[in-house]
Amino acid sequence: MNCIVCVTSVPDTASVIKIGDDGKHIDETGIKWIVSPYDEYALEEALKLTETGGGEVTAVTYGPARSEAALRDCLARGAHKAIHVLGGEATLGDSFTIAKVLAAALKERAVSELQEAIGVRENYEPADVDGVVVRLSGHRPAA
Predict the structure, then answer these.
(1) 71 and 5 in contact (C-beta within 8 Å)?
(2) For helices 95-107 and 129-137, angle between their N-to-C axes, nearest 10 degrees
(3) Helix (H, G, I), strand (E, B), or coil: what is residue 113?
């Protein structure tokens, strides 16, 4: 079984978050970005599924260039492939828009299952980006 894991970069909890000069965004100076802990769990579960049933794990993310570090981390943890949909430099957008972008990128890929992260994302509203991606891309969620 092949699995896709949607991952996102979030500020490390040890990072000091400051409001930017515009008063609308955070000042990213000095922030260490990490893979969301929820996505780490999803990656681990996908790796377990492929260890027992065969297949490959692909990590996918949408975001600016700094998001590449999250994908490299996923590859170091055992993911076989990584897809970076570059964008969101000015604003990442809402959860549904992000899900549509990721679904479009995945729709043409020969992947049978998509591993959904469990829990509320730290940097999106409590919408289920992964679940929407599953439905929009035509893949079925992992059990």
Answers:
(1) no
(2) 40
(3) strand
Distance, CA of 95 to CA of 143 (rounded, Å): 23
Nearest to 48 by CA among 71, 7, 79: 79
Task: Let me know how long the chain is.
Answer: 143
Confirm if 87 and 101 have CB atoms less than 8 A apart: yes
Of 12, 62, 56, give the one whose Cα is nearest residue 37.
12
C-alpha pair distances (Å), 79 with each of 13, 29, 70: 24, 29, 11
- Of 98, 13, 114, the C-alpha closest to 61 is 98
List the pLDDT tens digit at each of the 143 positions of the chain: 788 888 988 899 888 889 989 998 888 888 999 999 989 999 999 999 999 988 889 899 888 888 999 999 999 999 999 988 888 766 667 778 888 888 887 776 654 444 443 333 344 443 466 666 665 666 555 55
> How many Cα atoms within 13 Å fall on the side-chain side of residue 14?
2
